[in-house]
């Protein structure tokens, strides 16, 4: 059986569905409707004469034939994508689309300042950003790359530094400090109101401190728990309690006097933001240009 003109697009769609095991999530990545994907898969199965997917109202799974097809065509279609991507160097203007999974603070601090200039320079490049604190498998979920703190990048990935190392500090509103006092040691946080931070995996983050050779991780008390820095800043400005986070997040509030740093001599230093991607994939030209643009503009100094 020879490959028809309509098979290659449908095979490409099939691989995305097989990766997500969801028509809805695959449709978001491919920018088509779930209904269109369903019709494409039915047509592909009819042409091939085998069922590739088990569908129910709640789940999508691969049949044995579907698993066989996925394993057989993944590398060839990836090679085709790489060959097409390589043509970028012959274009007058680079083109393409890159999908990024980015920790929320990096989206605000690193990407927001540079993306307007980037799309002005490269109007034919599309940048699709998913800002999330949930640590995901960027390859498995169809992203070209991720941006995270250096210490959280998976070891099997290639990492490229995008910013300097970052201090992690504690800040509070002057009104809060006037009312409850200023802690002089991290252990004194046990007597304070703190805005607790939930990590992407759902675990409550223990505030980390270091001074000389001393290192502490404190499970702070607090009635408020958040997973969004903007919400935390609003709460801290309102005097709800002490807040912990990367120092650049507090820059505006510190400058206008809405917040003050405490325990500065205990500030821990963590790895800066890094771009990371799979060593098994050809780096898209658009991704390389974006990384160069961020490093040249240095939004975090």
Quick check: average pLDDT? 89
Helix content: 25-40%
Structural class: alpha/beta
> Based on DSSP secondary structure assignment, what is the total number of beta strands?
15
Distance from N terminus to C terminus (CA atoms, Å) equals 58 Å
Strand content: 15-25%
- Overall 3D shape: elongated
Order of helices and strands: HHHEEHEHHEEEEHEEEEHEHEEEH
Radius of gyration from the alpha-carbon trace, in angstroms:
24 Å
- Separate helix tally: 10
Low-confidence stretches: none
Q: How would a textbook summarize the main sheet? A: 6 strands, mixed
Summarize the structure.
The chain has 301 residues and is α/β, with parallel strands linked by helices.
Describe the structure.
- The protein is α/β, with parallel strands linked by helices.
- Helices cover 36% and strands 24% of the residues.
- The protein has helices spanning 7-20, 23-30, 34-48, 64-86, 104-111, 115-121, 174-180, 229-237, 251-255, 285-297, and strands at 53-55, 60-62, 96-102, 125-131, 145-149, 157-161, 166-172, 194-197, 207-211, 214-218, 224-226, 242-246, 260-262, 268-270, 273-278.
- Strands 7, 8, 11, 12, 13 and 14 form a 6-stranded mixed β-sheet that branches.
- β9 and β10 form a beta hairpin.
- α2 crosses α3 (34-48).
- The radius of gyration is 24 Å and the shape is elongated.
